[in-house]
């Protein structure tokens, strides 16, 4: 349903003395929109659950609250279907956000896997699916993502409204913070800016698209669904082929000027006589290379036997060998943990976090790396920093990036600046900028498909 702006206010005829405005009707459409946005977000964020509480927290009068609730109910965004607990009089009607009014698609890309899921408008994951894939094949990856989205959507009991697609990718995403959603694919990995992933998703599913680095989305996922719940200051570290960090400050994720936050893998570290980046000296590639070397030389009997069976040796196998008590593999993992811990100790001394969470397949497949990190951090940090500091393994696993992507999408959808331009239209897919962007993209695609006509043969 579309509510026209002129339905939300009664104009004042100044030529008629003492003319009374309609009860609860704001003086102009800007005021109507502002109050609708405020009321919706008060309810959505559980700051108010009844009309009386809304009057108190919003400082709007009873008539205005009643009017805005009627509009938001017609739009399907709020409902008063349930009754609260009576406190001496008639039980109040509970004002609730209709979180199942639409769905969000969430996607995560990793170096060797993809995940696709559905979330409600509260950012809660409803379904998820993960599978291995080589994302170096951009066309195959994009087609598979579209196929999985279609598959998840068809499993719903009724055709859902799709309000957005949020993607987590293995690299920094440099975007203009003033742009509410993407209109073209950024260059998050080499040549992926030519993949047309964002454009394809926009055209096929007619919904806004957002994209953030997997460290940022995993940080958000841990904050809202894992060990970070209720934490005001949290440092999140992902250990993989690359090593990255995310920061939560005052309960909110730190985005930075352009999204290039937490690139700690680029910091120089020294081990013995060798100096290099933390990625090169302590990441998965180093662990794998050292493991293969130990297997080929016979230093590690466990890894040598693995290699003789024709199996590939990756960082995961080295970590498993360390867990089994292989001394060479243990030393490889311990050295990685010490280097990572040394860098994290510097961050801890500067940021004084309540919690440090480690994630990634390497950190979550063994205890040795985490123990080495803890030893380095506690040994190199000020006592005031480590007094109440906890260093834990992620509780979210593969779901962290999907949950974080959902939280980012919800935050973007209901940001007051973005929300005010679509709330009266009933859906973010009707946002003027999105409609214009989609029409422009369709026009460009049509021109490209038509192409110049070849001259007739002689």
Distinctive features:
458 residues; alpha/beta; Arc Repressor Mutant, subunit A; Nucleotidyltransferase, domain 5; 3 domains; five-stranded mixed beta sheet; 14 strands; globular; disordered C terminus
Distance between the termini: 57 Å
CATH topology of the largest domain: Nucleotidyltransferase, domain 5
Strand percentage: 15-25%
**What's the domain count?**
3
Uncertain segments: 1-27, 452-458
Structural class: alpha/beta
Describe this structure in words.
This protein has 458 residues and is α/β, with parallel strands linked by helices. The protein folds into three domains: 5-97, Arc Repressor Mutant, subunit A, CATH 1.10.10; 103-217 and 401-432, 2-Layer Sandwich (Nucleotidyltransferase, domain 5), CATH 3.30.420; 229-395, ATPase, nucleotide binding domain (Nucleotidyltransferase, domain 5). 43% of the residues lie in helices and 16% in strands. It is built from 17 helices and 14 strands. It has helices spanning 29-44, 51-58, 62-74, 138-154, 197-205, 214-225, 278-282, 284-297, 301-308, 315-323, 327-351, 361-364, 368-380, 383-386, 399-413, 416-419, 432-450, and strands spanning 78-79, 96-97, 103-109, 113-119, 125-132, 162-169, 209-213, 234-239, 243-249, 252-253, 268-271, 274-277, 355-359, 390-393. A five-stranded mixed β-sheet has the order 5-4-3-6-7, sandwiched between helices. Helix 8 runs antiparallel to helix 11 (327-351). The radius of gyration is 26 Å and the shape is globular. Mean pLDDT is 87; it is low at 1-27 and 452-458.
């Amino acid at each position: 349903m579309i509510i026209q702006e002129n339905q939300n206010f009664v104009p004042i005829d100044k030529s008629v003395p003492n003319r009374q405005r309609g009860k609860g009707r704001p003086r102009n459409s800007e005021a109507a929109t502002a109050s609708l946005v405020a009321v919706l977000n008060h309810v959505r964020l559980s700051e108010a659950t009844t009309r009386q509480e809304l009057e108190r927290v919003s400082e709007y009068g009873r008539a205005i609250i009643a009017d805005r609730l009627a509009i938001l109910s017609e739009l399907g965004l709020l409902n008063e279907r349930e009754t609260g607990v009576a406190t001496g009089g008639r039980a109040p009607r509970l004002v609730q956000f209709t979180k199942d009014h639409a769905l969000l698609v969430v996607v995560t890309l990793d170096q060797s896997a993809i995940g696709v899921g559905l979330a409600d408008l509260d950012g809660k994951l409803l379904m998820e699916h993960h599978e291995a894939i080589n994302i170096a094949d951009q066309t195959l990856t994009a087609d598979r993502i579209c196929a999985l989205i279609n598959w998840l959507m068809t499993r719903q009991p009724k055709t859902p409204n799709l309000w957005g697609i949020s993607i987590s990718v293995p690299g920094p995403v440099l975007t203009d913070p003033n742009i509410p959603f993407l209109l073209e694919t950024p260059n998050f990995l080499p040549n992926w800016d030519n993949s047309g992933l964002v454009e394809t998703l926009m055209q096929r599913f007619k919904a806004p698209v957002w994209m953030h680095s997997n460290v940022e989305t995993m940080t958000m996922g841990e904050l809202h669904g894992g060990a970070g719940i209720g934490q005001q200051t949290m440092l999140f570290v992902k250990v993989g082929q690359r090593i990255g960090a995310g920061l939560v400050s005052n309960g909110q994720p730190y985005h930075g000027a352009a999204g290039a936050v937490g690139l700690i893998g680029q910091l120089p570290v020294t081990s013995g006589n060798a100096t290099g980046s933390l990625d090169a000296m302590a990441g998965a590639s180093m662990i794998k290379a050292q493991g293969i070397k130990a297997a080929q030389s016979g230093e590690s009997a466990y890894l040598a036997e693995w290699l003789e069976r024709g199996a590939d040796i990756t960082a995961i196998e080295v970590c498993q060998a360390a867990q089994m008590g292989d001394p060479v593999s243990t030393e490889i993992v311990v050295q990685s943990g010490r280097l990572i811990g040394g860098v994290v100790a510097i961050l801890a001394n500067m940021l004084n976090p309540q919690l440090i969470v480690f994630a990634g397949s390497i950190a979550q497949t063994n205890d040795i790396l985490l123990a080495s990190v803890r030893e380095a951090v506690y040994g190199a940090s000020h006592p005031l920093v480590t007094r109440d500091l906890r260093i834990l393994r992620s509780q979210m696993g593969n779901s962290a990036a999907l949950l974080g992507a959902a939280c980012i999408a919800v935050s973007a959808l209901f940001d007051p600046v973005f929300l005010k331009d679509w709330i009266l239209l009933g859906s973010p897919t009707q946002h003027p900028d999105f409609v214009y962007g989609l029409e422009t993209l369709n026009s460009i695609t049509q021109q490209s498909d038509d192409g110049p006509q070849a001259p007739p043969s002689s």
